[in-house]
Amino acid sequence: MSKLPQIAADPLWFPDAHDANSHALRLSRTNRKALAEEAFLDDRWDRTGAAQAAHPVSDFASLVAPKRAPRFIWHTAFCGSTLLARCLDKPGSNLSLREPAVLMSLANMKRTQGAEALRRELGPVLALLARPFVRREHVTIKPTNTVNNLIGDVAALLPDARHLLLYSELRAFLLSIAKKGEPGRAFARQLFTIFAMDGHPIAQTQPRELLKLTDLQIAALVWHMQVACLLEAARTGGAGQVASLDGDRFLHAPEPALIAVDEFLGLGLGKEHAGQMASGPIFQRDSKDQAQAYNAGRRAEEAEQAAASIGPSLDAIIEWSYGLFPASPRPGHMPHPLLAN
Q1: pLDDT at 282
Q2: What does pTM read for this prediction?
Q3: How confident is the model at residue 105 (pLDDT cuts 50, 70, 90)?
Q4: Distance, CA of 16 to CA of 26 (rounded, Å)
Q5: With pLDDT > 70 as the criterion, what percentage of the chain qualifies?
Q6: Is the per-residue pLDDT at 2 higher than 60?
Q7: Domain annotation for the chain: domains and CATH numbers
């Protein structure tokens, strides 16, 4: 087994699991290609045969983050974040890491153990994640949406980092939930219970009142709770540090969106790379499962079918939810837009 100094210096040792009770990290030995290709670096990632090592997080307390601060893609789910992260990966320029499980564990640790426990461990974990495989390569991290409670902590710890806030409009979010059927509706309720632990005022609603709400009403609340978190990040971060992007605009006009994202994050991918991605096969495959065909046209058809199945109650739910969250932006009005409205 490799010794600690070697592990700390070698990006082949990836921090793939975190135990919030023992405050230990598990690292698996992998390679850049595997990290870039894996849709989700969580429990769905098959690490069979990989060498592993376990160390207390405190063993990495002195690890210094690379001079190039990592970039982040925070998102509201179902808005093209996995596809965007794939498009931004280019060996030598940028490595995209999608939904590392260690960050989800830290986000939940903050919810259960408090901000002080998080502060002791966030820095070392981010330093491990941000190690480039080659000199001058950036690292862009796309956490899962349940990690959005860490945006402020990450921004405070890494003042030179840049943050893209990728989102869908409320209507699109609800249709994404609806078209997934019962699993989607169950997922929305699960998200509500998670975000309720972050101190959102709506979480103080009496359980008996929440039980009166439909699944799509709960999903609408989830969207507003996520957007409130993104709005806070936009309020505290400057225009040079934070930018927002509508996921549907990215999906329907990928080339200008990719160029704008590249320039904002400072990845140096170039306009040629953006053009190759936008016109290439990546937009004809399911970003979460590359073996499956999928594109923006099919997404739009599915949304239309979901809207038809819901009927007039969809618009009613949207207006009802904005009555509870009047500060939430209407379509096209997120702060610091990357593309002109």
Answers
A1: 93
A2: 0.94
A3: very high
A4: 6
A5: 99
A6: no
A7: 4-176+225-294 (3.40.50)
**H-helix segments, the chain:** 4-9, 32-37, 81-87, 101-113, 115-129, 151-157, 170-179, 181-195, 207-210, 215-236, 247-252, 254-265, 271-279, 296-310, 313-324
The residue among 273, 229, 282 whose CA lies nearest residue 80 is 282
Rounded Cα distance between 89 and 37, Å, is: 9
Distance CA 140, CA 142 (A): 7
The rounded distance, in Å, linking the Cα atoms of 186 and 180 is 10
- pLDDT tens digit string along 283-330? 988 777 776 777 878 888 888 888 888 999 999 999 999 999 999 999
183 Cβ contact list (under 8 Å, min separation 6): none
Work out the average pLDDT over 19-25: 96
Residues in the chain: 341
Strand order of the sheet with strand 138-142? 94-98, 138-142, 71-75, 162-167, 242-246
* 78 closest CA partner among 328, 251, 312, 252: 251
If one counts every other C-beta atom within 10 angstroms of the C-beta of residue 49, the result is 7
| Category of 133 on φ-ψ map: left (φ > 0), alpha (ψ -120 to 50) or beta | alpha
* Average pLDDT for 229-254: 93
Query: CA angle 229-67-13, nearest 5°?
Result: 85
Concatenated DSSP letters of 270-296: -HHHHHHHHHSGGGGEETTEEEEE--H
Q: Which of 11, 17, 53, 54 is nearest to 35 (CA)?
A: 11
- List phi, psi (to 5°) of 96: -100, 125
CB atoms within 10 A of CB 311: 9
pLDDT of 158 above 80: yes
Instruction: Return d(Cα 162, Cα 324) in angstroms, integer.
Output: 31
Distance CA 263, CA 274 (A): 11
Res 220 pLDDT > 70:
yes
The Cα–Cα gap between 72 and 144 comes to 11
